[in-house]
Structure prediction request, 168 residues.
Amino acid sequence: MTLECAAIFFIPGESLVLIGGFFAARGHLDLIDLILVVSAGAILGYCIGFELGRRFGRPRLLQMGRWVGLREKHLDQGDAFFARYGGGAVFLGRFTWFRRPFVSLAAGSSNMTFRRFLFYNFAGGILWSATFALLGYCFGASWRTADRWMGDASLLGVLMLLVVGARV
Prediction:
């Protein structure tokens, strides 16, 4: 979780936590310990990503982003977005698998205060960890169904963010 949330290594975090919840339901792991360990990893990973974004973010994003058309004006728009919705973006970004690794980098490079980031990082990290561990625990043997369902929910969350972004 730490490496995924820090945008260092891309792994299917939800799937791993769901599987952990499945093993907790079977008595192989303690559910509370699972939630605590996953939360700690997710929160630490976002903190690492935030610091990487703060130290290297903007120049590195511009350098690497030229291949996909990323320009200074796009980063300025991102800064404005994080100034207005940064806490919500940090919190909700955790629940979308393809955005999770980049939210903390963007927050760090946008000069969001660490104190504000940390609050939403903790809240989102704990809720995300508990949600997916409990889903795996409750769904038991049908954890693949829960994984597919959460993928659809992530897509719905992205659509909601796009609607909110279009209104701004």
Summary: Helices lie at 2-5, 13-25, 31-65, 72-93, 100-109, 114-139, 143-167. The CA atoms of residues 67 and 125 lie 32 Å apart. The chain is about 80% helix and 0% strand. The chain has a mean pLDDT of 78.
